[in-house]
Amino acid sequence: MIFQKKITNLYEKSIKNHNEIQQLLIESGSTMKKIAEDLEDSNLQHLSLTSVGIAIGASYFEQITGSKIDIGIWIK
Predict the structure, then answer these.
(1) Cβ neighbours for 73, distance < 8 A, ≥ 6 positions apart
(2) What integer pLDDT is reported at residue 56 of this predicted model?
(3) Where are the domains of the chain?
(4) Residue 60: per-residue pLDDT
(5) Which pLDDT does position 1 carry in this prediction?
(6) How far is it, in rounded angstroms, from Cα 48 to Cα 54?
(7) Distance (Å, whole) CA 19 – CA 56
(8) What's the whole-model pTM score?
């Protein structure tokens, strides 16, 4: 139980917004930088996860880890 709490806390502290994720991708190497640039120049940049997708992801996370996460941080 303590291990799950530590993992959950680490996960919650590591949540990044779009700009932070993009910067991490760019900094991780030239291949990821190229992918990030190509995504920004395509229609894929307009895709986003729906509230249903977030709920499905959270449900899967809970099944795998046994820990619940607060999806309210993404769904407003």
Answers:
(1) 15
(2) 92
(3) 2-73
(4) 92
(5) 65
(6) 10
(7) 24
(8) 0.45
Block residue for tokens 């806390």:
9
pLDDT 10s digits, 22-61: 788 788 888 888 888 888 888 887 888 888 988 998 999 8
What span, in angstroms and rounded, lies between the C-alpha atoms of 12 and 70?
Answer: 9
* CA-wise closest residue to 75 among 51, 46, 39: 51
Buried b (16+ CB within 10 A) or exposed e, 1-31: eeeeeeebeeeeeeeeeeeeebeebeeeeee
Which amino acid, one-letter code, is at 9?
N
What's the first-to-final CA gap in the chain, in angstroms?
29
